[in-house]
Q: What sequence folds into this?
């Protein structure tokens, strides 16, 4: 039986995550990621090992420097809860404007996230994303 309350909470969580990417809002991102202990983020341009690295290398250096406009659109969310741990998977479309020349960028990918529940709510401890294969 599906827990609709949990599923709705995860939908909201993923939309907030997308908003943090779209706006490069570090404080919003910080509210989503676990701040102590090991976190990791595997993406096509790198492998980050702390929230400080995620903030600098993914949010600021990649999203902020490479793109003047970003729109991450998550879709097809699947989620599972294992006590105080959750696993999310979804596909996404990413539309952006390249800062260097104003060209339009569109990529598609899939992402998995591992979350842990803390007193303040769910926090990301791991993300792995990759582009979808070309048809």
A:
């Amino acid at each position: 039986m599906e827990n609709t309350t949990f599923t709705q909470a995860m939908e909201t969580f993923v939309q907030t995550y997308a908003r943090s990417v779209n706006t490069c809002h570090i404080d919003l991102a910080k509210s989503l990621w676990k701040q102590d202990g090991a976190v990791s983020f595997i993406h096509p341009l790198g492998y980050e090992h702390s929230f400080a690295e995620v903030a600098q290398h993914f949010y600021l250096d990649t999203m902020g420097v490479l793109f003047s406009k970003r729109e991450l659109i998550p879709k097809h969310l699947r989620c599972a809860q294992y006590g105080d741990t959750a696993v999310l998977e979804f596909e996404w479309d990413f539309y952006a404007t390249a800062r260097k020349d104003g060209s339009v960028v569109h990529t598609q990918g899939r992402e998995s996230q591992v979350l842990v529940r803390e007193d303040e709510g769910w926090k990301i401890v791991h993300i792995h994303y990759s582009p979808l294969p070309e048809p």
In short: The two ends are 35 Å apart (CA to CA). DSSP finds three helices and six strands in the chain. The helical segments are 4-23, 26-32, 51-66. The chain has a mean pLDDT of 94.
